[in-house]
Amino acid sequence: MATITSGAARHAERDAGRVETALTALRGSLDAFVSDLMRRAAAEAEYARARRFPSAPSPSMDPQ
Questions:
Q1: Which of 6, 28, 46, 52, CA to CA, is 20 to 30 A from 13?
Q2: How far does Cα 41 stand from its chain's mean position?
Q3: Ramachandran area for residue 63 (φ above 0: left; ψ -120 to 50: alpha; else beta)
């Protein structure tokens, strides 16, 4: 009986380690995906800002 319990505990520990490893990999993938989206958005914003006419008012300067 003790052998079964000890074996079950080892399996549970191993499975917990696998879940943790999978979650770590998922988080790394998500971080890379979001980082790429942020870089692209920043590049697009910079490109749009560079194309504005110098005399055009900034959107943040428009009176409300």
A1: 28
A2: 14
A3: beta
